[in-house]
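Xylose isomerase-like TIM barrel domain-containing protein structure dump, as promised
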Amino acid sequence: MELQIFRHLWGVPDPLDVCIPRFVKAGYDGIECASAEKLPQGVTTDDLRGAIETHNLAYLAQTFTTGDSVAEHVASFRAELDRVLPLNPVRIGCHSGWDRFPLKDAIDLYRELVRIEADLGIPVGHETHRSRIFYNPWTTRDVLMEVPEVKLVCDFSHWVCVCERIPEEPEVFALAADRCMHLHARIGYAEGPQVTDPDAPEFAAERAAHEAWWQQIWAVQQERGESVTTVTPEFGPPPYLHTLPHTQEPVADLEDVCDRQAGNVRRLFAAWSSRA
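structure tokens r here:
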């Protein structure tokens, strides 16, 4: 199984013609981002597609649903697809629904979204993200049991933050691993979704837990015969990235953190592959 690492454009201030060549040089296989309309500096769909195609990168789309009802979230997902499909995504991630949705509404929403996915022919994964339906392990489990076609973008940093601990729910994590389409390799801790530095020894326990969950995903994917696994080291800018009080100076360089985490993931995957 091949590892492909994507670079998110979240928090990247540079124009595409500056940052994309730099990311290619750093060894990234693709770009993950929302539609061009959500990017800074007046980027157009043609600009984004041109940068991706020029450098032979894969594109992983990030989409967002909104509204007050299931019908409105479905309609907003269709509108998001209209914006990202011209970019030829290999996979589509989605922040879907709201955490306040009753279970019945959540189930109804995902039944509609998987029908849309089936017509697309492109895998769609729904992110385990705060404020969304899959913000905690238990709601996620309940929906996945009812709608087995649902795939996930697994970002377990949010679950650690929401639970205020490293969750010990092996059956839920096994189910999530089975449904994982894409992985966000950020590390969360009890008081937040992003540690200050993934290499900091004070977060060794959190790093070990996340890496164990990621390897569980890889094992399931390899057992299933998948040829590629995709990962984004999705560390984000302030306020995800901690800052000093008053000056708001970031405590770390975001690009350095993302690049180091990409290296960590490559080494972890290589070590796991040698044992698998």
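The chain has nine helices and eight strands.
lmk if u need the other ones
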